[in-house]
Amino acid sequence: MDEKTVEQSMQLILHSGTGRSMAIEAVRDLMKDNDVEAAKKKIEEAGKEIGEAHDIQTAMMSAECDGQPVEKSILLIHAQDHFMTALAVRDMAQLMVGMYDNLKNGK
């Protein structure tokens, strides 16, 4: 696999993993501290990390659409798996924080 694809795959894993961890941390901290605003801020930060991962994925897809083939590998598949998991965890964390906020405010 070429060096650029390895670097992009590793960056995709890094940013996705950081975003996923931050989203989980937001829910964990909410359970401990009952601070909805802090949890929302942490999820927003998670979204920025996931956004970085999304930019990498988009660049790879754009390059391929422009006729620059991207070599498929287990590493790239692993990176995509991390990215999709991060998106799902972030979305679920947002729902959980919203639900907690509604329950806390009697909605």
UniProtKB/TrEMBL annotation:
GO biological process, any: phosphoenolpyruvate-dependent sugar phosphotransferase system
Entries under Gene3D superfamilies matching the protein: Phosphotransferase system, lactose/cellobiose-type IIA subunit (1.20.58.80)
Residues that bear Phosphohistidine: 78
Claim: Transferase is one of the keywords in the record: yes
A Pfam family hit: PTS_IIA
GO terms of molecular function: metal ion binding; transferase activity
PROSITE patterns reported in the protein's UniProt record: PTS_EIIA_TYPE_3
Entry superkingdom: Bacteria
Cofactor note text: Binds 1 Mg(2+) ion per trimer.
Record's keyword terms, sorted: Magnesium, Metal-binding, Phosphotransferase system, Sugar transport, Transferase, Transport
InterPro entries, per database record: PTS_IIA_lac/cel, PTS_IIA_lac/cel_sf
Catalytic residues, chain numbering: 78
Residues where Mg(2+) binds: 81
Required co-factors: Mg(2+)
Protein name, entry field: PTS lactose/cellobiose transporter subunit IIA
Species, as recorded: Selenomonas montiformis
